Amino acid sequence: MRERLIDALDALAGRRTVVVGDIAADEFLYGRVARVSREAPVLILEYDTTLIVPGGAGNAANNVAALGGRTSLFGCVGRDAQGARLVEALAAAGVDARGVVRVRGHVTTTKTRVLAGGIHSAKQQVVRIDRKGELVAPRTVHEAWGRRLDVALASCDAVLISDYGGGVVTPALVRHVKRTLRLRKGRQIPILVDSRYDLGRYQGLTASTPNESEVEAMLGVRIGDDRRVLERAGRTVLQQTRMAAVLVTRGSRGMALFEADRPTVHIPIVGSDEIADVTGAGDTVIATVTQALASGASFEDAAHLANYAGGLVVMKRGTATVSRAELRLAIEADR
Known about the structure:
By secondary structure, this protein is α/β, with parallel strands linked by helices. The protein contains eleven helices and 13 strands. The protein has helices at residues 2-10, 57-66, 81-92, 138-145, 148-153, 171-182, 212-219, 227-241, 281-294, 299-313, 324-333; strands at residues 16-21, 23-36, 43-56, 70-78, 96-103, 110-117, 124-131, 158-163, 191-195, 207-208, 245-249, 255-259, 262-267. Strands 5-4-1-8-9-10-11-12-13 form a nine-stranded mixed beta sheet, sandwiched between helices. A hairpin with a 6-residue loop joins β6 and β7 (124-131). It is globular and about 65 Å long.
């Protein structure tokens, strides 16, 4: 399998992926613990620096670019400082952000994580502050894209839908993407969806990559270590969404791949189970699966590549990406 995965990895370069979805700003505020406040039982931090990186669909697009893919991102941000910095960061990462609309009056969703530690210790997250604007009017965003989305769809190798509940992604938009891709001749273009709150409203796409908690919430079950419950849950999601494959990510328990008329593939976690940070790991997984399918890989090989990528990214602090070089080293080192 190692040689097959290396071949699949080499095929990722240059594949064109269109990413559509909700973009957020992941803000990391770093400080050093100075002392305990006399005003309240809280720590006083001496401010060090602030880092803002793309989250949500922006992180998925960044991961596609890090894997050597060519990606066009469609979404929206506000006309605020966070939105401006996001557009700059995306361009610096090699993402085509011409489809990112800056909406007047819209507040860019920002997730601020405050990390603190000593001079000689790793910074640990002590609090997270979420700033969310109202749901964006999808028609406003879709009309602002104009023909750019259809032009991008005309030459892409895959489409990644990232639905964080911000309003950009709608069933009507997904139906439009499907209709547009059907007009193309040649092989079928894979469409993948990562929906954090309502996976059930997307039907008949290529694949989805929900985590175990999302599956439990969707079906009202508790999976835990019970393989029989996992099997029923995965098959139920597969049936209800009418997708070709469902890849359930299970944290330290690895992954489970469900395909119609094929036995379930259980993939154990690779690397260390001492996780440093799971921020954005789901974006890395679906980006890797999407790129692999774009290059013609099987669902199983795509899942194995994503398993390596997920194992690498959770060992990094903050919202991070994984490169093809890192993936190659991890595959070659795995005995």
